[in-house]
Amino acid sequence: MTETSVHWRVTSKKNNGATMEQLRTIGRELAMGSQGGWGQSKEFLDLVKSIGEARSKAEEDRIITRELEHLKRRLADPDVPRRRMKELLLRLVYAEMLGHDASFGHIHAVKMTHDESLPLKRTGYLAVALFLDERHDLVILVVNTIQKDLRSDNYLVVCAALTAACRLIGEEAIPAVLPQVVELLAHPKEAVRKKAVMALHRFYQRSPSSVSHLVSNFRKRLCDNDPGVMGATLCPLYDLILEDPNAYKDLVVSFVNILKQVAERRLPTSYDYHQMPAPFIQIKLLKILAVLGSGDKQASGHMYTVLGDIFRKGDTASNIGNAILYECICCISSIFPNPKMLDAAAETTSKFLKSDSHNLKYMGIDALGRLIKINPDIAEEHQLAVIDCLEDPDDTLKRKTFELLYKMTKSTNVEVIVDRMIEYMINITDHHYKTEIASRCVELAEQFAPSNQWFIQTMNKVFEHAGDLVNIRVAHNLMRLIAEGFGEEDEGADSQLRSSAVDSYLRIVGEPKLPSSFLQIICWVLGEYGTADGKYSASYIIGKLYDVAEAHPTDDTVRAYAISAILKIFAFEIALGRKIDMLPECQSLVDELSASHSTDLQQRAYELQALLGLDKQAVESVMPSDASCEDIEIDRNLSFLNGYVQQAFEKGAAPYIPESERSGVVSVGNYRAQDHQETSAHALRFEAYELPKPSLPLAASQASISMPTTDLVPVPEPSYYKEDHPMSRSQTSSDSLSGEFGLKLRLDGVQKKWGRPAYSSSSTPSSSTSNQQATNGGASSEVGGSISSQARESSYGSKKQQSTEVSAEKQRLAASLFGKADRKAQAAARKTSKESPSTEKVSAAKATPQPAKEQVTPSAPPPDLLDLGEPVSSNPPLADPFTQLEGLLGPSSASPVVSETPASSSSKTPDLMSIFSDDVQTGATSNSTEPSLGVNVVAAKKGPSLQDALQKDAAARQVGVTPTGNNPILFKDLLG
Amino acid sequence: MIQAVMVMSTQGKPRLLKFYSYQPPEKHQDLVRGVFQLLSARPDNVSNFVKVDAIFGPGTKLVYKHLATLYFVFVFDSSENELAVLDLVQVFVETLDRCFKNVCELDIVFNFNKLHTILDEMILGGQVIETSSEQIMRSVEEIARLEKQSNTTSLIPKSISERFSR
């Protein structure tokens, strides 16, 4: 015997006496049954052992390669017994699981599915399902077998075929097996029916059109005798309902009834899991109801009673009980809101949040995120719990909390939230999440920024730490923002903003390892506004820009930005009539770039040199100062070239023939043209492809302004779209250019997310609230806040200790996140002040400096964190319909509702009802006499051993599945 | 929908891989590595849920259970409830425990086909079909019994049996 059986003996020795022998047989039967013993597995054991002992990946690879060679030989050998074949195939599966190519054996797996013997067939199907997928070429060879096996008398063969069908049948093969699968929906074995339902569901997922006519089968199966089949049917129904809820509204009552019966434990006890009645079915039903009741007041009305029941019976001690409660919360937050239900949901959510389990806290945060969509006030109560989660070492919880904060961000708390996000972002290495959180920061900042200063600082931080991860569009937005300013009427503020940006960039620019996109912004801003306020000299800025270009010899985009910025500085200086000299190192840079491999850099360098040779007038028109926001008019007809064209005609040039007319049409009128055409027709044609469009107008426009650059052949670079073409600002030359490249800073027509109109209304209240915090918040309301929240917390008793420990810092964070604490505190302070007139005066006195500011804040109540309509006022009107519903669905009238359903939902429901009531009866008398479940009888026969097994099981579960004392040694030997 | 079930050792060796949504075979090892790196970096006493949209695509999450020397990992999308999947892992482990009596890593290494059988009874095409470990055990036992019955012919070399079947 092998070591495995030794291991079995070892474990079974623990059970003494007469049961030992029995257990051993069962153990062997259970563990080895399907293999027919492990007598032949010495080789496999050795393989596993040697892999476990391998010291390096290379050694492991060598071992497996050797094994694969061996398997290849053996599989091809016709004299191998078929039972050995099975093991060889399993070893092949094992090798492939470890990441080695075993494709040579795939055909053997396919062959094995043809085998008559059940174990071999099943192994074949297993291997095929693991090796192949629907797109594989060999699948075509399996389809036939599946088709045959679906008709088999042996239900296990049918099951194996259905399992394989789920994995392997692709869109084209569906028609081949569909009739059989549909037939199997009525199979006497419930296991087969269940799998047939799933296979049909799978087909629906693959290709909805090919099974759409069979969708009604799912409805039929909902009334299956077996609750397991009914439960399985919920999966496809859920998918169908997600797609088109309206088509299934008629089932709402049925679903509610099923849920009710399940929750009332009317299913056989064999469906219980950890003392909960069929929890997975309940969860699926709740998911379905959530979809069906969404925005449907009438449908939701049916659900309230049963949801309330589930809440009442909710078991918060077990994991699965909490899973159901969480699903209930999801359902309530999705269906038409009902205040009573929302209260119950909020209460459960707070239980989750207060739990010590990280899993429950996670669910609590998620549930809170759903509930605040309906009632933003709920968040306030849990502010401290939320902050705890934010500071938790568990990354999952932290990220979930950030998600929640992201949902509840508004202009009053954006600063705190985004600061927190950035702080977290800096410290993580996970690129994927870094990208996500960076883009969220940008999004929030763009949407809610309280001030431009803050926005620019925030963006700087984002770019500094995650610049390469954010979309380049964000960088362009930032540049545009700085260029545009925040409104035409306040030029002073704009220039102040720009000079502060320049200041901060000059500080940062020397730092190593700045991301490319951030450097582009810096260069652009320095070039555009570096010298605008006269604080810095041109040569200083040029020096800095030169440093940037020098420090990034491989980044062409940054260098292009830098050289263009230098060009701008020179242009502005020349336009101002100042004479500035080219620094020698700068000259060498320009020389270097003129010889660059990148034609774009070359062009920029030449342009710079050309510009230096121009006089003041020309420079001013070529490079007007601060004109990045000017609209550029595009003259598509190139009318400014008319003179030039006329001149050329006079000299006898051929007229331009549009490309579309060029072939075939020969203009006889012009001999020269004809001549030209002929030559081009007879000679080799070098222009096999269409001319690149921009080159023609480009060349023309360059020519027109008779600059030294004319003798250059400007080649449009694909990288242009990223960059700001410096020449595009000159009115004369740019017209054609901007058509192609002008997209850079074309600001009109871009959705204006940012700018004065968007935030001007919110900026006032935000500043006033911050003032409040600054003036009296620090003194009175902060203290009041802590007192009131402590008072509130202490009422929960359990939380008391924690609340006393809550640091002042957390309180402050909470206040800034959830704002409301302030108001509540004030309210509380006022309440107490009523009792003691002296404090009232104090508070009144404190209140007096406020009114002016409070008047500034418009009628909207400032402390509302979440812009979701009128949350508080929306509740009272809702109360009325609910009381109406209460009347309809109250406990007194519950029975009529139930008895009413058969009539309303066709003939299916009575069937269903009777089934469940039957189940209850049989379930109550004795479980084993259940007629439909033949398997139960088997279990009853095995009575004593099963009980033993259960006992041992329970003992084992106490220890978890930790290997017993003897096992670890074995482990060490085998697996290192 | 459940996208994948993985069992791997605490050293990152895959012990069972089952994908319910298509993943190219050459990517499997990367997925295992990605998940392992993620899990091995997590301290004890934190939640059992991790977002894995970086590995398995947008909206995917995983639930894991660390037992003895093994990680049990279920990857799923937004249509499942995290806590419920955690219990599904529990059902799976309980069933294994029933099946192998004090399951240990070795059982899983040698009987991975049995694990597949159990999983096929629990999850089909990414949907949960059975959550009672008793019921699963019953099906698995019955399969074993019937397989044994039809096992008698399997000692004949395949060259002979093939001749017979012709």
What does this structure look like?
The complex is a heterodimer of chains A (976) and B (166). Chain A is mainly alpha-helical and 976 residues long. Among the domains of chain A are: 337-408, Leucine-rich Repeat Variant (Alpha Horseshoe); 409-470, no CATH class; 506-625. In chain A, 69% of the residues lie in helices and 0% in strands. Chain A has 51 helices and two strands. Chain A is extended, with a radius of gyration of 38 Å. In chain A, 40% of the residues are buried. The model of chain A is unreliable at 1-40, 665-671, 695-803, 821-944 and 955-976 (pLDDT under 50). Chain B is α+β, with helices and mostly antiparallel strands and 166 residues long. Chain B has a single domain, classed as Beta-Lactamase (2-Layer Sandwich). Helices cover 47% and strands 21% of the residues of chain B. Chain B contains seven helices and seven strands. Chain B has helices at 28-40, 53-56, 82-100, 105-110, 112-122, 133-149, 158-165, and strands at 2-9, 14-19, 49-51, 61-67, 70-76, 123-124, 127-128. In chain B, the strands form two sheets. Chain B has a five-stranded antiparallel β-sheet with strand order 2-1-5-4-3, sandwiched between helices. In chain B, β1 and β2 form a beta hairpin. The longest helix of chain B is centred in the middle third of the chain and has 19 residues, at 82-100. Chain B is globular and about 45 Å long. The termini of chain B are far apart. The interface between A and B is large, with 114 and 93 residues. Chain B: One of its GO terms (cellular component) is cytoplasmic vesicle membrane. Chain B: Its main location: membrane.
List keywords for this structure.
heterodimer, A: 976 residues, mainly alpha, Leucine-rich Repeat Variant, two-stranded antiparallel ribbon, 2 strands, extended, disordered N terminus, B: 166 residues, alpha+beta, Beta-Lactamase, five-stranded antiparallel sheet
